[in-house]
Design a protein that fits this description.
Helix content: 25-40%
Strand content: 5-15%
CATH architecture: 3-Layer(aba) Sandwich
Number of helices: 5
Number of strands: 6
Oligomer: single chain
Shape: globular
CATH topology: Rossmann fold
Structural class: alpha/beta
Largest sheet: 6 strands, parallel
Order of helices and strands: HEHEEHEEHEH
């Protein structure tokens, strides 16, 4: 009986997340202006590639460990300005080496639905002229992913989810083997970081 109750609670939680994410998507379409992409970036052969990159980092420890390992390769590049967006409570999951490039937010930066409302952070990110944004969140609980709808970056990369086609210009399917490293390697290849 306890097992059935736990399954029901999990199903109920998943339904709430799906409904909330659909409401957030609708909110952005109705009340926020759609970002205008003003430049195109060629990342393939013969292309200059990206010169600035924003990672949206996960705030959950189980995802942060893999993301922390992944961002090391991009952070070591001298030809690339790399910035990071993460929740204040998750900063300690990441290396002190990147602390000067972290833009942090907290729970008060979201409205009652989960829509990001801190205009000064949005303005700061827009002023950086980011070429590509990579969302490393693998959890649909993280509503910060919807912030990408407001950013004018031509390349928006994220993992496949129930709402990914509304947010990202490039969608990465999680590795069928379950190893996140393979999925992160795909992101590196797409952006020309590897």
């Amino acid at each position: 009986m306890v097992h059935v109750k736990e399954q029901f609670q999990l199903l109920n939680l998943n339904m709430k997340i799906i409904w909330r994410n659909n409401l957030i998507s609708l909110w952005y379409r109705l009340f926020r202006s759609k970002s205008k992409i003003t430049k195109l970036i060629r990342i393939g052969a013969g292309g200059k590639g990206i010169s600035s990159l924003l990672f949206i980092l996960p705030s959950e420890k189980r995802f942060a460990q893999n993301a922390s390992h992944f961002i090391k390769s991009a952070d070591n590049r001298k030809d690339l300005d790399v910035f990071y967006l993460t929740h204040q409570k998750a900063i300690y999951f990441y290396s002190e080496k990147i602390s000067s490039k972290i833009i942090s937010f907290n729970d008060e930066d979201f409205n009652f639905l989960g829509v990001f409302k801190n205009r000064s952070i949005i303005k700061k990110i827009k002023s950086l002229g980011i070429d590509a944004v990579v969302d490393l969140n693998l959890s649909e609980k993280q509503t910060i992913s919807f912030l990408m709808l407001e950013l004018p970056s031509p390349i928006k990369v994220g993992f496949e989810s129930g709402f990914s086609n509304k947010i990202y210009s490039i969608i990465i399917k999680p590795s069928p083997t379950g190893f996140l490293e393979k999925s992160f390697e795909n992101v590196e290849k797409i952006l020309g970081l590897k």
